[in-house]
Amino acid sequence: MAYLLTKSLHIVFVIAWMATVFYLPRILVNIAEAGDEPAVKARLELMGRRLYKFGHNMFGIAFLFGLVLWLYFHVSGGWLHAKLALVVLMLAYFIWNGRLLKRSMAGGALPSSKTLRILNELPVLVLIAIVFLVVAKPF
Questions:
Q1: Exposure check for the chain: N or C terminus, fewer CB within 10 A?
Q2: pLDDT value of residue 36
Q3: Residue among 19, 2, 28, 34 nearest 123 (CA)
Q4: How far apart are CA 12 and CA 2, in angstroms?
Q5: Contact between residue 114 and residue 25 where contact means Cβ atoms under 8 Å apart
């Protein structure tokens, strides 16, 4: 029962983190499209900053439950190594989005909204691969 509870909590916090991974780039798109509306831009940057902090907290908790699954319940396999590599890639993407937000807050320029929209789709592909690895455990 402890294994199922730990696994369930890990999944819940991963879902919460993924929500931030998907929504933060969308906030960046809106900031890029805000143009010369400083009040709108300021509100979006505030939302982005809060979401980014929330995302880090959710990742940290998911990471801790993942460690328990690995170290205490001995979840292992080649699929896990591939999954962790993709999670690191997703985390790097999340941190990069956070740096774009910080750049915007400092008055710097963002990539075009079209570029941001395209980049916003990449985590979906990575998530599909992660879910496949976890469910199928192909190696």
A1: N
A2: 82
A3: 19
A4: 15
A5: no
- Contacts by residues 105-110 (CB-CB < 8 Å, ≥ 24 positions apart): 105/45, 105/49, 110/28, 110/31, 110/32
User: How does the average pLDDT of the chain come out, rounded?
Assistant: 96
d(C-alpha 33, C-alpha 40), whole Å: 10
- 8 A C-beta contact, residue 67 and residue 11: no
Q: State how far the Cα of 78 lies from the Cα of 95, in Å rounded to an integer.
A: 26
The single-letter code of the amino acid at 44 is L
Q: What average pLDDT does this structure show over 7-35?
A: 97
Round to whole Å and give the CA distance between 56 and 89: 15
pLDDT tens readout for residues 80-101: 999 999 999 999 999 999 999 9
Closest CA to 17 of 66, 47, 62, 65: 62
User: What's the DSSP call for residue 75?
Assistant: -
pLDDT confidence band for 35 (50 / 70 / 90): confident
